[in-house]
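Write out the 3D structure for:
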Amino acid sequence: MSALWHIHLTVNGRPVELDVPPLTSLAQILRDHLGLTGTKISCNKGECGACSVIMNGELVNSCLVLAPQADGADILTIEGLGQPGALHPLQAAFIEEGAIQCGYCTPGMVLAGVALLRQTPNPTEEQIKQGIAGNLCRCTGYQKIVRAIQRCAEQLAKTGQRP
């Protein structure tokens, strides 16, 4: 029987305390312990981006972050975007541009876009491609995803909102 690690997190603005084995990944914590299944587990090697979340303001592959590394972190998942009854502007842009196919990569892709827009509010097409490079999509061909991020950036610039 292994020792448990007591961790404190803030997930989507809410404080959380858990006791988990030290080799538990952040993806497992989110899905199995907190029921936040928008974070997908696919490759479990940090190669596909399906498990992407924003941790302390940075995009991370949550399958590679272990419980002790997440202790004290501020985590944003797809469930934490937007407001009750209102989509985040990037989520709305994904729908408007038809950037959603099977949907498996969508949560991680949206969070990659949000992280990019927070760092670069008016990204070029090349910057968008770089910003989502760690997130694989097998259905869309990426063109609609790039357009969705461009659309969101334009909308945010017009309204003065931050992503």
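Residues 5-80 form a domain with the Ubiquitin-like (UB roll) fold (CATH 3.10.20.30).
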